Amino acid sequence: MDTRSSQQKIYHEVQHRQFCALHALNNLYGESFFTKKSLDEICERLDPQKGWGNPHRSFFGWGNYDVNVIMVAVQEKNCEAIWFDKRSDLSNLDLSEVVGFILNIPNDYALGSFLKLPLGRRHWISIRPIVTSGSPVPSQSSQSAQSAPSKAMDAFRESKRMFYNLDSKSKGPVLIGNDSAVISFLREALNSKGGEMLVIVPKDKVNR
C-alpha cells in the first residue's frame, strides 16, 4: 500500500544534505532527539584518532553516517539494533516487540529499484509501527478476560497497529499497512531488491 497518511500527525523529518541516518533515527522515535552534534560525538567515540577525516561520517561534515553510528545511537534510547539475516524468515519476527526497522537502500533509487551492495551510495530510511486511535481498549472486567489479559491486549494492539514508511526523501509519512502488509513490503525489499535491514528492539527484549 502506498497511501500517504492524513489521519493523524506523525513526526517526519525531510532530507537535508546526507543526514538520512539522522532523519531515520528521529523519524523512528518520533522526535528530534538526535542532532548532528550528537552523531558527530558518536563518530569521535568510535574513532578518537585525530586525522584528515572520520571513517564513520562524511569528510565534509555533511552526514553520511555509517551503520556503526546508528547502532550506537539507538543504545542511547535503551534499544539495540540487530542486523537481519536475509536467510531468516521475516514471518518469524515478533512485530509486537519491535520499535521499528531501519532499511539501507540505494541512494538514487526508489524502493522498487534497488541495487546490490556494494554498488552505489546508500540511503537510510525508517519503518515505524503506530497504534491507531479511535476504538476503546477491550474490557478486561469479565472473568474470561482476566484469565488472559495480555493475550487480549496483544490481539487488540495487533488489530490497530499500522506501519509507516518514514523515508526522509518523501514529503510525508507513507502508510504501508498492517502486520501482513509490512512483512510483504520488507520481504520484497530484502529478498528481491537487495536492501539491508536493522531490527530495532528494546534492550530488555534482546535474546528473550
UniProtKB/TrEMBL annotation:
PROSITE patterns attached to this UniProt entry: JOSEPHIN
InterPro entries per the UniProt record, alphabetical: JOSD1/2, Josephin
Catalytic activity: Thiol-dependent hydrolysis of ester, thioester, amide, peptide and isopeptide bonds formed by the C-terminal Gly of ubiquitin (a 76-residue protein attached to proteins as an intracellular targeting signal)
UniProt-recorded Gene Ontology molecular function terms: cysteine-type deubiquitinase activity
Keywords from the named record: Hydrolase, Protease, Ubl conjugation pathway
Occurrences of domain Josephin (ranges): 7-208
GO BP: any one term: proteolysis
Domain of life per record: Eukaryota
SMART domains the UniProt entry points to: Josephin (SM01246)
Pfam family, one: Josephin
Its EC number(s): 3.4.19.12
Record's protein name: ubiquitinyl hydrolase 1
Native source species: Ramazzottius varieornatus
Annotated gene: RvY_15842-1
